[in-house]
Amino acid sequence: MTNLHNPTLFSEKEFRTFRWKLFLEKEIGQLYQSIPFKELSVLLPKKTTEVGASPWFSYEGYFGLMFLKSYLKLSDAMLINRINTDWALQMFCGIQLKETQQIRDKDIPSRVRKFLGEHLDIESFQQVLIEYWKPYMEDTHCFLNDATAYESYIKYPTDVKLLWDSCVWVFETMNGLCKVLKIRRPRSKYRDHQLRQINYQKTRRKGYKLTRKRKRLLLQLLNKGLGQLKDLIDQHQNQTCNLLNDKFQQRFTIIQTIYQQQQYLFDHPGQSVPDRIVSLFKPYLRPIVRGKETKRVEFGAKVMTSQVDGINLIDKLSFDPYNEAKYLQQSIIKHKVRFGKCKQIGLDQIYGSNANRKYMSENKIYNSLVRKGKPSKLEDQARELRKQLGKERSTVLEGSFGNEKNHYGLNIVKARLRETEIIWILFGVMTANAMKIAKRTKNRNTKQLTA
Prior knowledge:
The protein has 17 helices and six strands. By secondary structure, it is an alpha/beta fold. The protein folds into three domains: 95 residues, no CATH class; 147 residues, Nucleotidyltransferase, domain 5; 109 residues, no CATH class. Strands 1, 2, 3, 4, 5 and 6 form a six-stranded mixed beta sheet that branches. A hairpin with a 2-residue loop joins strand 3 and strand 4.
């Protein structure tokens, strides 16, 4: 077998050229060519001069890391390990490590994700990609619209779990402060409740009376812990002012809100509270009722998606539940800005409000909704068009949701912050789109060579 790395066969310049051509022929190289890295880097703020060693990745490399994260479905640490040992991934990110070099910082992808979450505008990001992909897209006068939910990585929330997590944070924080201040901890029954919580969790059948009793005791414990922690801070304000940062104040406020909400729900069974917090560590999440047979409620981001020629675009992303039918007109306006006038839409029946029907009739947009009123003269043709649009929406669009969740890391979103979770979802959807464009580019080039 010929050794391609033998320096006697290739000079250094020839070897680099050969390796670059080999990279472009691979699937990852085709993905690389379908992404406008230079145009995307303009969307981020200009870098300021910093003291110290230069960063490993440029802005183009930032986007490369996020696309690779979704493409390979790796953890942040595994992604850095793969980049250290794979020259193709290094080329994708715009770097070339020497034989003696190795990236040891495993938190780079996490920091990049946070940076993009703070500075990247979703609509501008999608518009740059659309302009780059337009030559490979057809039938842009038509789009399909639907919504899906991308679940967050949290344990299934219950009131008892939420109250216990809050108690654990309060008493562990109070114990840590007492240790730093070298004072005695306030008296509490926290350790007794640890055993009670373990016994409750081991109980297979948690009846209504047992659960209500556990909630009552946890509410009492949490109320006492919040009061003790507040008194401790007030008494040693001069010594604790440097120890308590904004993150502490935010978490303390969240737990106070949790206590108020849970106390109201305990006193008023069967009622609900607005903006109910279901996770201490992700307080921005809200229950999203989906009505599925296996999952009636999901916890994550609800995304309204428009699909144009197989390419999915995010029209609305929110962690609060919403009715997607109210935002159809905004989706049509966005489509007009992106591609021009819309003529056909494939929709679910939930979009069939009178306001939406009137808006589409005024703008002469054909849709897949069941017709109201008397049939027209061309009812047979209209029925066939509705059938085709509805079939495309229920197969192609909904199938693309499953493809993103199964193959691009969107089955469970494991980001920890609201901003980073949005970036995780955004790059998962766009990586799936880029792979479709890469395949179309390859097919077009193959046809041109064989012609």
